[in-house]
Amino acid sequence: MIKKAIIASFAFFAMSLMALYTARTKEVSSFIPAMETQEAPVVVLELFTSQGCSSCPPADILLDKVKREFPNEVFALSYHVDYWDYIGWKDPFAQPGHSLKQREYNKKLGYDGNYTPEMVLNGSLHFVGSNKVKLHEEINSHLKEKAQNGVQLRNVVAGINAVSFEYAATGDLGHKLLRAILVIDERTTEVKRGENKNRTLQNSNIVVQEAYLDLEASAGKASIEIPQLVLESDSLTLVLLVETEHLDITAAAKAQVKR
Question: Is Signal found in the keyword set (predicted)?
Fold first, then answer.
C-alpha cells in the first residue's frame, strides 16, 4: 500500500526551498583532486517517508538494509515530509522543503501528486519505497553504468554550529550544482498518536539539512549548518551530490562527520 496526497506548490514552500538552497561558500581550497577520477557507478536513493504514515516503516527498514548491503555504492537519504502531520502525529524530522522537493521530482517524472513511501533513484525514476524486488533490480542495473562525474570529500569536521568540509569534483561540471546533505545516521522515536500510535520507530539516514553550492571551481571549501534538532549523541554523515539543472544526480560521495 502507498499513501497519496496532492500537494500544491504554494509560495510558502517555494520560499522555504529558496532559503534552503542559497546557503553557499565560494572559498577556493588547496584540496587538489587526485589524478584518477571517482566516476564509479553510483546509486542515490531518496526515500520520501513519514512517521505519520502506516505504510512507511517497511520502506524505512528496506532503505537501511540496502545501504548496509551496498555500503560503498548506495547513498541512502530519508526525507521526512510534513503533509501527514495533520492526522495526529507531527513527525519531528518533517520539513516543508522536503514535500516541495518531492513535488518537483514528481512533476519532472510525470506523476500527478505525492505519495509515501516513494523512492527516487538518482533523480531519474520513482517507485514504491517498500518494493524490495524493484529496488534490487534497479540497484543492480545502475551499478553497471558509469557515473558522469566524480566527487571527493576531505576534512569533514563539526564545529559548534556547522560542519566544514573540502570537496573536489571531476568531469563536465557545466550547468551543475553540488548538493551538500547532513544526515542523522539513526534515531529511535516512540510514536504517541496517529497511524503508528504506540509503535517504536527506528529511522535512519535522516536528512536534517541541505545546502546548494555553485560549481564555479572544481575544488573548494564549504560548510553546512547543524540544525538544533541534532543531538550531541547523534552520529552524523555528510553526503555530497553533483546534480544537473534537471535534478539528475551524476556523482556522490559521503563521509562520517568528526565531532
Answer: yes
